[in-house]
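re: ur question from yesterday

yeah so i grabbed the chain u mentioned. its 106 aa long if i counted rite. heres the sequnce exactly as i have it in my notes:
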Amino acid sequence: MEFKDLSKKAIEIKDAYGNLNKAKGEKAWGVSAYAQGFAVDVGDLLRLMMARDGLRTIENIDEKIAHELADCLWSVIVIAGELNIDLEEEFLKTMGEIKERIEREK
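ran it thru and got these C-alpha cells back, copy pasting raw so excuse formatting
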C-alpha cells in the first residue's frame, strides 16, 4: 500500500469519527484535539514499551504495541492533513537533510 492510500484511509476514519461525534452531539475535534490524542497514544506506547522491558505486566504486548504504533501513525497523518502539510514530501525532505548531515559528520 502506498502512502497516499494510507492517508486516504486515515482521512476516511477521521471523517467517520467526526460523523459519530456529531450524531452523539459532541463537539467536533480540531487539530489541537488530534494533537492531544496523539500525546495520549504516545503515552500508551511508552507504557507498553515499559512492559516489553519487563517493568510492567501486560499480555499480548507485541500486538498492543503494533496497535499503538498504528494509532500514532493515524494521528500524525490526520494532524498533517489538518495543517495542509504534504507529509510524504516533508518526510522525504527531512530524511534527505538527515542523510546529508550524517554524510558530513563521517
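noticed a couple things. The longest helix spans residues 31-52. also The chain has one domain: 3-15+29-105.
anyway ttyl
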